[in-house]
Amino acid sequence: MTSQNIPRLAIIGLCCALVATVGCKKATSPPTEALVTFDIVHEVDGVPLQLDTILYQNAAGNHYDVTRLEYYLSYFNCMDNNGLDHKVDSICYINPRKPNTLSFHANLPTGSYSGMQFHIGLPAMKNTSYCLSNTPENINMAWPEMMGGGYHFMKFEGHYLDPLQEQKGFAMHLGMNPYLITVILNKPFQIQEGKNHIQLTMNLNEWFAHPHTYNFDMHGNYTMGVDSLMRKLSENGSSVFTLKQQP
Amino acid sequence: MKNVSIIFIGLLVFAACKKTPPTVVDEPIVLTPYEIEYPNYVPTMEVPQDNPPTVEGIALGRKLYYDPLLSQGGPNNGRACASCHLQQYGFTTPGTKFPPVLPHVNLGWHTYYLWDGRKQGALEDVMLFEVSEFFQADLSLFNTDETYRKLFKKIFGDEHITYERMAKMMAQFLRTVNSFDARFDKAMQGDIFLTDSELRGYEIFNSEKGDCFHCHAIGLFADDQFHNTGMEANPSGKDVGLYNVTGDMHDLGKFKTPTLRNAALRGPYMHDGRFATLDEVIEFYNSQVQFSSTLDPIMTKPGKENGLNLTAQDKADLISFLEALTDSTFISNPALSHP
C-alpha cells in the first residue's frame, strides 16, 4: 500500500460508511395484527340480565322486566395511542335470546389503544329498506316505509308496575336517522399477539337514566314514532355501554 | 421337445390371460338442481346442505304429499297430507276448529310448526314426524311398490325406502309451496297499483295505527315467533299455547304468528277458530284485547290498551289489504297440484 493510496482508500471507506448509514434504511416490519373478540354482555346495574321476570327498578322507580331486546351495533372505530383510527365496518345484530349474536370478531394491529367508538343503530347509508342481508332477524327489524323506512335500531320491550302496582307493558322502539346513537368509550386497552377479548357491557338501566330520567308513567311506555321520546332514548343511549378488557 | 415347450408356453399364456368378469358399474346418480325463486323482500331461505332441491326430489315429494298410501293401515287410514291441506284454500281446510289447520305455505322459512310450536327444527324434522308418527306410514307398502322403489333408487342410488328419505323428499316439495304472487306482490314488483282502499289498509297495517307489522312482518306476513295477543285474561286449557311445550309460565297464552297470506281464503281464525271472519278478527284487535301477565307489550300502546280504535272505514280498508294477500296463482298452480 503506497502513501498515495491511503487517502483514496480512506475516501472510499468513508463513502462506504456513508452509504451504509444513509442508504441502508432500517426496514420497517408491517404491524402485526391479532384476532380480537368483542363479547356483548347485558346487565342491569351490575346484575346479569334475566329475561321475563320483574326484577329491576330504574332511576324513575319503575319496577320492570325485559321480554325482548334486539338492536344493532355498527361501524366500530378503535383509536390507537398514535392517533390512528382502525375501523371495523361491521353491522352486528344483537339479541340476548340468541347466544350466537353476542360476539363478533375483528383483526386489529397489536399495540395500545385509547378507546373505541361505535353506533347503536345503523348510519344513514345503511338505514334504508332492504339494505341489510335478508335474514329473518333483519326482516323482522324493518321500520315501516311510511314512517321513514330502514330498520329499528332497537326493540326493548317488557312489563312494568304502575303506581297502582298493576302490570303494564312498555315498548322502547328506536329508529330513524336523527336518533342514531354514537357511543364513545375512552377506555384504554391493549391488543397483543394471539387472542384478545374485549367485553362491551350494556347496562339496561342506563337507557332510563342519563341525561334523562325516563319514567314510563310520566313520559310514555311506547316510543316508536314519538320524536320527543326517541330523542330521550337516543341521548340516554350514549352512556349505556362500558368497555372492559378481558384477561 | 421344442413343440412341447411351445405348447407349454402357450398354455401358460392362456392361463395368464384369464378372462376377468366385467366390473359392474352402478349408474351414477344424476339429478337436476332446482332453484327456488322468491322475492327480495323476504328472508333468504335456509336449505340443508344434505337435501338440496332437485327436480326429481320435488316430484317425488309431491307424489308422496298426495298419496293416501302414507296412511294405509294407520290411525289416519285413507288420508294424505293433501286431504287436510287443500290447495284451493291455500293448503288448509276451512271450517276446522280446535285447532284450525295451519296452511302449508312458505314453510321453508319456518323453524316452529303448529300453533303451540310443539314441532321445531327444519322441514325434514317435521316431515319425519308426519310420516313416522302422524301417518305411521307402513314402509313395507312403499318398499314393495315398484314405482316408488324406482323413484327412490333414482335419487338415492338404491331402492331402500326409509322414513328419513321420505321426509327429505316431502321437505323438498314443501319448500316449493310458496305464495308470492298476490296483488300485494304484484304491486311490490311494480306490475300493478293497489286500490285506494288496499293502500290505506296497507298503511294501517304497516304503521302505528294498526301495528300489524310487528308480528306479521312484511314479506312472509309472519315472524316465526310467539305472542300473547290478549285473547284470554287467564289463559288455561286450550289457550295456554307455547306453555304446553316449554312449561314456562312466561309463555302462557302465546301462539305462533300465522301467516296472513291467503287468509281471506280460510277461516275460522285464531288458535281455536273462535272468529269466523276477518271482520271479527279485526274487531277483536280493535276493541276486545284482554290484559294478562304475558300480554305482548306491543299490545299495550297508550290509548290502545283495549284495542286499536279503528273507524269502520279503517277496518274496511284493512280487510281490503288482507284480501290483497290472496294469491290466485298459488291456489291453482299445477306444479303444486295432485300429480
Describe the protein's topology.
The complex is a heterodimer of chains A (247) and B (339).
Chain A: H1 5-23, E1 33-44, E2 47-48, E3 56-57, E4 63-64, E5 68-80, E6 85-94, E7 103-109, E8 111-120, H2 136-140, E9 152-161, E10 167-175, E11 181-185, E12 189-191, E13 195-203, H3 216-219, H4 227-237, E14 241-246
Parallel strand pairs in A: 1-13
Antiparallel strand pairs in A: 1-2, 1-7, 3-4, 4-9, 5-6, 5-8, 5-9, 8-11, 8-12, 9-10, 13-14
Chain B: H1 2-16, H2 55-65, H3 81-84, E1 112-113, E2 119-120, H4 123-134, H5 139-143, H6 146-156, H7 163-174, H8 183-188, H9 196-205, E3 226-227, H10 243-246, E4 255-256, H11 278-287, H12 312-323
Helix pairs in contact in B: 2-7, 4-7, 9-12, 11-12
Main sheet makeup of chain A: 9 strands, antiparallel
Termini gap of chain A = 66 Å
Helix residue percentage of chain A:
10-25%
Q: What sort of overall outline of chain B do the alpha carbons produce when their principal axes are compared?
A: globular
- Beta strand count of chain B: 4
Using only C-alpha atoms, the radius of gyration of chain A works out to 26 Å
Which class do the helix and strand fractions of chain A yield? alpha+beta
Instruction: Please summarize the sheet with the most strands of chain B.
Output: 2 strands, antiparallel
Task: Please tell me about this protein's structure.
The complex is a heterodimer of chains A (247) and B (339). Chain A is an alpha+beta fold. Helix content of chain A is 16%, strand content 40%. Chain A is built from 4 helices and 14 strands. Helix content of chain B is 33%, strand content 2%. Chain B is built from 12 helices and 4 strands, in the order H-H-H-E-E-H-H-H-H-H-H-E-H-E-H-H. The mean pLDDT of chain B is 91. At the A-B interface, helix 2, strand 9 and strand 10 of A face loops of B.
